[in-house]
C-alpha cells in the first residue's frame, strides 16, 4: 500500500515535471521582492555554490576527473574582474566574461600536460597548479602581491542584481549539465564512467569528452567565482586560490550524491545552511561537514539523493533519454 | 572410507555470484593421506569450489569440515593456520621478492614460523633448484621453477592438506611430469593432496579417487583406477 | 658565484633529508595499497602539535617527546586505516581518496579550533646553531640533524623490510594481496599496521619539521605536496629513491630561490614537480 502511494506520487511528479520546474523558477524569481535581505543573500550563496558543485560533479561524477584544483578558475575569474575594473575601469560585464575566457584558455593550455596524469596524480596535479598560481599571485607586483584588491565596481550593484546573476549561473549550471548528459557527449561520459578502456575501444573519444567537461567546468567556475567576488568585494590570493573552494564543492557533491544532477541541489542547501548556522564557529562547520562526508562515503556512498533515488527507483532530472 | 580418517568433508555447498549459482549442492570427502582429483572443464566450478575451501569466498549454504572442525566462512589467513594450503592457479608468487623470501613468507603462521628452518630444508631437498637460486628475484625464474616455488611456498606453511589448482597449465610436458613426481613424493611424506585439473588422463593416473564436475555439480564419482577415461570424458563434456 | 651557490646546495641536500622523512610514510602507503593519503601532511602536523603539547606539559626536549608521540601516532594510523580506509578499499579509486581528503579538512579545522591560527615552533637549542666550515659556508645544525635522522630512518626501514616477517608480509601484500592471504597473512591487519608505521614516520617528521620551521594548522597541505613530490621524483621502487627524491626537491627549491628570490621558493618546487609529472607521470625512477 505504502509503496503504491509512493509510485503514484512519483508518476504524478513525472507527469508534471516541467510544470513544477517552471513554477519553482517563477517563485525563485520573485524572492527579492518579498524576502528579507538575509534570505536573499542565503539564496544567492546557494546559487553560487550550486554552480561550483555542479561543475565539480560533472568532472568527478561523470568524467572521472577528481580535480582538487578548481579554485584556480575562481582565482583567475576573480582577479581578472578585479584587475580589469580596478586598473582599467573596464565595464563589469565584459570583465566577468573575459575572466571566463581567460580561465577557459588557461584550462586548455594546462589540459595537455595535466591529462597525461592519471587518477591520484591528476588529483594532486590540479591542486599543484592552483597552489602554484596562489604563490605566483601573492608574489606578483602587478596584482599588488598578497595585499589584494577592493572591487569597487561592485558598489554600483544591489544585492538584487547579484541575486539574479547568481541565479542565472546557478540554474544555468544545472541546465548545462543536464544538456551535456543528454547529448552524445553524455552517452560517451556514461560509457567512460562504466569502463574507460571499453569506451575507448568503442570509439568514444575519451580525451575529447573529458576535455570538453574540463573546459566547461573552467568557464562556469570562473564566472561563478567572479560573481562571488562581486558580492564579497575584497579579493586576495590566499583565499581566491585556496583549497577551501574545492573543499566546499567536494562536500556538497558527496553529501548530495556524486554522479547525480539532483545531488548538488540537495547538498548545496545543507552546506550553505550549516555554514550559516555555525557561522560564528568557522572551524566547527568544516569539521562537522568533514565528518558528515566521511560517514556518508561509508554508509551511503551515493549521498542523500543517490540513495533516495536507489530506494525509489526514480530520478527527477534523469540524464537518460526515455 | 570410514569417517575416522576423513580429513576434509564438504557438505551440500551452494555458492552464488550475484544471481548466478556457480556451485550446486556439492558434497565430497577427502580421506587422510590420499590423493584425490577434481576434474572438470573451464567453468565447471572447480576454482570457485577451491576458493570456498581456501576461504577466499564464502559459500551461500553448506558446510566445510576440516579435521572435524567447521571451517566454513573462515578467512583465508585463518584456514592456512588450520592446515590447508592452496597452490593457486597461475602460481601467484611474489614477483619482487627473492626466492628465499617467497619461501620464508610461506611460513607466516605462528606454528609454521617456529619450524621454518626445518621446513625450508625439506623444500630445498625436494626442489634443489630453489636452493641454488634462493637469492634471485622470483620473477626472473623460468615458468617451471616459478611453479616449484609456488609449491615450495605452500609447503612452508606445513600443511596437512595441499590443493593444487591447474598446476600443469602452460608448462612443458616434461616439467609437468617432474612436478607430478614431486606431488606423489609430497603425498608419501604424509600430506593429503587434492588435484584440480582439466587434464583427464593425468588426473586419473595420479589420483586414487576422482570427482568429475560439470555446470557447478559433481556428476561422476569413483575410484580413479575404476573410472574409464571414456566415461569421465562423457561426464566432463556432458555428451 | 661558487660561493653564492655552495650554501643553497648544501642546505638543499640537507633539507632533502627532511623531505625524505616527510615523504617516506606516504610513499609506503602508496606503494602498498595504491592509496594517496591526502591527510598525510596534516597527520604529520598533528604530530608536531602533539609534541608541542607534551613539551608545554612536561618541559622536555622535543626529541624526548617522540617516546610518547610515536606510539600515539602509531595507534592513530591503525585506527584511521581500520575504521576509515579498509572499508572503502575495494570501492574504486575515489572513495579512499575522498575519505583522506575529508580527514585532512577535519584535522586542519580541529587544529585551528584548539591551537588558533598562530605559527608555532618546537623550541630547542639546535635550531639557531650553525657550524662554520669557511667564512662563507656554514652548516645549520638542525638541518644536519634532520639529514642524519633521515638516513638512519631509511637504513632502519630497509632492514625492517628485508629482514623481518612483518616487513616481508607488507611487501608480499603489496605484490599480490590474494596470494598474501593464501600464505596466512591477514592483509587488512597488515594495512592497519602499515598505516601505523607510516604514522610513526609522520611523528618523526612532525617533530623534526617543528624543530626546523614554524608550523600552523594549515601547513599540512604544503608538506603533503612535498611528500607527493618525493614520491613522484623518487619513485616507489626503493627507499633510496625516497632519499634521492627528497634531495632533488630540496636542491630545486633552494637553488631556484637563489635565482628568483625566496618568495618563489615553493613555486619553484611545485613547477619542477609539475614538470616531472608531465614528463614522467609515473615517477623518474619508476621502472615502467
CATH architecture of the domain at 1-77 and 199-239 in chain B: 3-Layer(aba) Sandwich
Using the CA coordinates, give the radius of gyration of chain B: 17 Å
> Helix/strand-derived class of chain C?
mainly alpha
Unreliable spans of chain B are none
Q: Average pLDDT of chain B, to the nearest integer?
A: 90
Q: Give the oligomer, counting copies of the same chain as homo and different chains as hetero.
A: heterotrimer
Proportion of residues in β-strands of chain B: 25-35%
CATH domain class of the domain at 1-77 and 199-239 in chain B: Alpha Beta
- What general outline of chain B do the C-alpha atoms trace? globular
> What is the H-and-E element order of chain B?
EEEHEEHEHHHHHEHEHEEH
Task: Count helical runs of chain C.
Answer: 11
Say how many strands of chain B there are: 10
The Cα radius of gyration of chain C reads 19 Å
Count the helices of chain B. How many? 10
N-C termini distance of chain C: 39 Å
Greatest interface and its participating residue counts? A-C, 42 and 39 residues
The order of strands across the largest sheet of chain C is 1-2
Q: What fold name stands as the CATH topology of the domain at 1-77 and 199-239 in chain B?
A: Rossmann fold
Largest sheet of chain B: 6 strands, mixed
Uncertain stretches of chain C: none
Report on the architecture of this protein.
The complex is a heterotrimer of chains A (about 325), B (about 240) and C (about 290). Chain A has about 325 residues and is mainly α. Chain A has helices at about 1-15, 15-35, 35-60, 70-85, 90-115, 120-140, 160-180, 185-195, 195-200, 205-230, 235-240, 245-255, 260-275, 280-300, 305-310; strands at about 150, 235. Chain A has 15 helices and two strands. The mean pLDDT of chain A is about 85. Chain B is about 40% helix and about 30% strand. In chain B, helix 3 runs parallel beside helix 7 (about 145-155). Chain C has about 290 residues and is mainly alpha-helical. Chain C has a domain at about 25-220. Chain C is built from eleven helices and two strands. Chain C has helices at about 1-35, 40-60, 60-85, 95-115, 140-165, 165-175, 175-180, 185-210, 220-235, 240-260, 265-280; strands at about 130, 140. The longest helix of chain C is centred in the N-terminal third of the chain and has 32 residues, at about 1-35. Chains A and C meet through helix 6, helix 12 and helix 14 of A and helix 4, helix 9 and helix 11 of C.
